[in-house]
Amino acid sequence: MPAAYLPSRSLIRLTGKDAQDFLQGLITTDIDSLPEGEARPGALLTPQGKILFDFLIWRDGEGFFIETETAQREALMRRLTMYKLRAAVEIAAGPQDGVSVFWGEDAGKGAVTDAAFAKAGIALTRAPGKLDDGPEAAYHVLRTEAGIPMSGHDYALQDAFPHDVLLDQTNGLSFRKGCFVGQEVVSRMQHRGTARRRVAIVSGEAALPASGTEITAGGKPVGTLGSVFGNKGLAIVRIDRVGDALARGVPLFAGDVAVSLTLPAWSGLSFPVEAEEAET
To answer: What is the per-residue pLDDT for 243?
Structure first.
């Protein structure tokens, strides 16, 4: 059974009688509909609708686990505490170090199914602590091939909207549950159909250049490389600009490497085509 240990991930545990209501009114994920045994992606946004922190969240008995990057755990705990005010919620660091992930089979008791990978047709479970010693890089290769982005690898915090990183496609962004921080902005993007930046899977004709390299069409930037493994990678791109380049037959490059871009098939998204092109 393929597995990996992720020492770069850490847990926060929230407990208390107000924990569910507190989270429901704060983060992008619909907590009220979150079933036992499922880990959903989510984010805490700025009032302007950009991702301040990203994470996975699942139920743990009467409380919740939030899994996030170790480097941002303390800052996220401080931000949650700031919003807590007088709510009956306890916020503490998780008891285990790191997270183990298993794909292809269920890891057993204590493991939860990752909803984002499930959308991509991959059975992947997560469990607190070190239950295996598989290399973390194997996990990142898997999520890159699946088109599942991660902050610090594919985008910078406070620089992306939830739509940019497909949270609207992975049950990480709810438009039905009511207000949360940044909700007005992202709801407007949804209803007006103005989301133009999306995650794309990149395939190079040779090894791709380093993360952060611009992807260009006709010398003009259309996006930026994120995770890179050999000739495969992820990028957040302007889908309208890529669609225009594809319609006009303009080649795409990452640095000096010719590339092709595809949107994750599971997302149901496609590069937009101008009306006149669609009619021909």
So the answer is: 97
